[in-house]
Every structure is written in C-alpha cells, then in structure tokens.
Amino acid sequence: MSESIIEESILSRPTYGTLKIVPGLAHYFLADASGAECVIRVVQELPRDMMEKVHILYVPTPGEAALITSLYAVGAKRFEHFPTIEEAVAKLGDWLSDAKMGTQLYLAGTEGLVGQGVAKGEECGLDHTAVQCEHRGSLARRVQCVHCKTMIEDVTTQPVKCPSCELLLFVRDHYSRRLAAFQGVCINAEDPTEEIEIKEVFK
Amino acid sequence: MSASDHLIPVVVSNVVEVNPIIKRFEFKHVNGDELPAFSGGAHIVVEMLDDGTKRKNPYSLMSSPFERDQYAISVRRDDTGRGGSKFMHEQVRPGMEMKISAPVNLFSLDLRAKKHLMIAGGIGITPFIAQMAQADKLGVPFELHYAARSVSQAAYMDSLADRFGDHVSCYCDDQGEGVDFETLLSSQPLGTHVYVCGPKGMIERVVETATHLGWPAAHVHFEHFLAPPVGEPFEVHLAKAGIDITVGAEQSLLEAVEASGTPINCMCRGGACGQCETAVVACDGEIMHNDHWLDEEQRASKQLIMPCVSRFRGKRLELDL
After folding, report:
1. Could you report the per-residue pLDDT of A33-48, keeping only the tens digit for each?
2. Is residue B79 assigned to a domain?
3. Looking at beta carbons, which residues of chain B come within 8 Å of A22?
4. How far is CA A27 from CA A56, A183, A196, B56, B145, in A?
5. A163 to chain B, minimum CA–CA distance in Å?
6. Which CATH number covers residue B180?
7. Contacts of A126 in chain B (CB under 8 A)
8. Pairing outcome for strands A181-186 and A168-176
9. Which pLDDT value is given to residue A117?
10. For chains A and B, what is the number of CB pairs under 8 angstroms?
11. N or C: which end of chain B has fewer CB within 10 A?
C-alpha cells in the first residue's frame, strides 16, 4: 500500500504523520488492513523485552488471513482482531479504561479508523500529543449529515445523498474530531430540484 | 501596565505563627468589600514599604476560592534573602494596612483532567490548599503528596490530613520518608494531570520522571517562584527614557526601573510568567539569567533579560525601556 497523499486544505482537515515509537509505559496499536504494514514496520524494530508493553487491535479485510498471521507473529502481549472498526474501537476503549499515564496510542489505516481511534483516545483521557496517526489506503470519508445527524461511512462521492433524510450533501473539508467525521451540508437547499452531477472523488 | 499597578487596599486581619519559620497572614478589604474571585493556584503580589524601600513579592493564595471575604497567604522566613519575608515576619501585625495586587493564576488546575495529582515540597504546599478546596467542591478525584524536611516544619500537614483524609499522603525527610516518583507516576489513570510546587530539585525530578515515562508535557504543571537574588550593585542605561539607574545590592532590576518611574510590564515578579521580558540594546558584560522563562539560546544571545530576577555584571548594560 502506497503512502498517503492528502492535499493541503483548511486547518480543520486532519493531516497525518508516520508512526514512530516514543518513550512510554505501554504502546497500543489500532490498524486496519491498509495500516497493518505500518504496525509491523515499527513493532518489528522493538527489542524483545519491549513486547510486554505492546497491545495490538486489528480490523482485517473480510476473508484475508495473511496479515492476521503476520501481526500475531510480532509477539505482542495482547493481539485481538475484530470484523468491524466499531467493535475494535470499543475494545480499545475497554483497554484504555485500565491504562495508565504514559500510554502511547498508534493508529494506522483509513481515515475512518484513525479518526474514531483519536476520538476514543481523547474520551479516555489521552492527550493528543500521545496519539500518532499514519494514513494508509482509501481516502473514503466518514461523513455526518449535519441536518439529520446520520453518520455515513465510506463516502467516495461529491456530493453524496444522505441515506436517511435523502438530502444531497456537499462533503466539506470541515472535520469534527469529536465525531471523527467530515461535515455534509445540503448542496441544493435553495432549489431542491437542481440537478447536480455526482462524481467519485475520494478514492 | 501590570497587575500590580492597580493595588487593592487591605487590612491585615490576622497573623498566625504556624511553626518557627512559617507565618500565615490574612487580609480583608479595608472597606469590608468582597475581594476579587480567583481559582486554586493563583497568587497575589504583596507590596511592602520597608523603611524607604518598596518591595513587591508574590505569594500563592491558600484560602478557599469559594470564600472571598478574606485572603490568606503563608510566608516562610528566609534570613539570607533580600528581606521581604523578614519584613513580613517582623513588621506585619494585625490591623496594619497594606496593598496587594489582584490575583493572577499561572498554576491553575486543568479542568479537563480526570484526576489531579498534586506534589508539594515544603512551603510549596500553599497553592495546593486552595486547589484542594476547589477540586473537592468540584468532585474531581485528587491526591496530594506532601513532603517536608521535618515534622516540625511541615506546615498544615495535620490539618490537611484531617480535612482531606485519604486524599493526602505525607512524607518527612527526618523520618526517612520520601516520595517514590517513579512508582507514583507509573500508576496514574489515563487523563491524570500532575502539579508540582516545591524546591527546584523536586520539580526537576518530577518533570524528568514524567517525561521519561511518556507523560505528555501538557499534563505536567509546575510553579517555582524565585525570590530575586541579592548581588553586587550595577548600573543600567534605559535607552528610551534616556536615564541611568543604579540597581542596589538588595534591589531587583525591576524594582529599580519602577523606582525611576519608567513604565515596565510585569506580573509574577518571580521569573515565571514572562511579562517583564525586556530587549537588551547593548551589553558589555555578563547577564546573570535567574529566570525560568528564557531558553538557553535566548540567554546566550544576550538580547533579552527578565528584570524581575536577573542581574548584570560588567561594563555597560543598555535596555530598551
């Protein structure tokens, strides 16, 4: 999977770095299939005695097993995988509720996974400087319809139709860290009959 | 403009000898008015008129932020200092009128914290007494670890233990007790903020240990007021005012500038807040940087000075004042 290229935009639009181990009492990782290689890259370089401090959560692509095997093989103290980001993030919350100050969180993969991991970390009391993010894979967005508050996952088009209230939404770069979602605002509120071409732009 | 320009007239309502080296002073507004609101960790500047010399020293408020009819501070006597604490101990009596600044807080609780971990050394206990009253009322978990040299010097140790029970752990050097920072800082729940006030060595050990364990800098808070050190008198040229002033041996550069009637910003008067940062126009000699504000690079550049605590030795110092 190639490295992420995110165009410069408004300040609200998150940008991401490259995972690098920093001093800490414990190191928690959350990744999906596109981010798995980032986790393997940094964890493999750790001395064996550090593995006692490493905890990994993984969301595989359905049917894929090779990366599960590779991640298992790095020898973390805990390794668990879940079919959905939602379940993995909930598990991260369980783990962090027992965690101590000095904990570092590393997130790698698609923006939906990274954003939800950041929000969970913050909810659990992690300072943003203790959370590192590396974006890999699709630029598909998690979007909140600002009108009916429905969360729409994996949005690749501009505009997008809200599956709940059926408004046609312009996907903004305006991002909510709390909700881990881009904001979708009705694009044809003045004239709902206006026809707007839907293009695939978030690949 | 500075916080100490608008002073509040107060009357000393009580003076209590806490132990042989520490006295508590209580102040009420001369008119009996409510004093300005503050939050735990705030300090006031107390103006002392000592036989022709005007001193302004910062002291943390230890009274509850929820009681505004009076303020309380505690002062540790330092016989080797410039005389501010000695003046407070020897000259200040109940009924005396004094002037204090409005409170300023450079050491406030971070209200996003899931828990407040407070570490005090000696007289560094005072801001925590106000903070604990605040945290207790807010219902946020907190824990105080209070270290002192000896039982007899440990101001308020018994009363705090009575008042806040299990929240308070005490350590006395003369009993062979000490805080194990590594263990303490390794066992704090996520979302904890740590606050330390005490001797320089204690602050350094807490900050170093926390950093080494992976605590984010934003969760580590400390306050260390410096008393302006005494030294050799020196001459300074104030470029804008076009005057030369002399800084006396027991006077700070800030006090000498103020005495000349030249305007200067300031707030904490203890090398911590950064308000009095002043540009150096010319310097032929050595600046004794005594503050916690400038970094190594800024100090080496000889282009900035903190007049509240720093001094000069050499041929000529010219400031942009």
Report:
1. 999 999 999 999 999 9
2. yes
3. 214
4. 8, 31, 47, 48, 28
5. 36
6. 3.40.50.80
7. 190-191
8. antiparallel
9. 97
10. 56
11. N
Q: Each residue of B173-222: pLDDT tens digit?
A: 999 999 999 999 999 999 999 999 999 999 999 999 999 999 999 999 99
- CB nearest to B185's CB, from A99, A101, A129: A101
Q: Report d(CA B180, CA B186) in Å as an integer.
A: 10
Q: Are residues B250 and B288 located together in one domain of the fold?
A: yes
Please give the residue range of the domain that contains residue B184. 115-223
The pLDDT of residue B1: 45
Record: contact A126-B114, CB cut-off 8 A: no
Taking the C-alpha atoms of residue B136 and residue B90, their distance in angstroms, rounded to an integer, is 35
Q: What is the CATH number of the domain that holds B303?
A: 3.10.20.30
In this complex, the residue of A23, A101, A129 whose CB is nearest that of residue B190 is A101
pLDDT > 90? residue A203: no
Residue B4 pLDDT exceeds 70: no
> Within a domain: residue B18?
yes
CATH topology of domain A26-135: Rossmann fold (3.40.50)
- Provide, as residue numbers in chain A, all residues whose Cβ is less than 8 Å from the Cβ of B191: 101, 124-126
Closest in B114, B186, B212 to A125, CB measured: B114
pTM for this entry: 0.85
Mark whether B189 and B132 lie in a shared domain. yes
Count of structural domains within chain B: 3
* Least confident window among A15-19, A138-142, A182-186, B52-56: B52-56
ipTM comes to: 0.81
Structure tokens belonging to residue A107: 């997130």
- Determine the number of helices (DSSP H) and then strands (DSSP E) in chain B: 7, 17
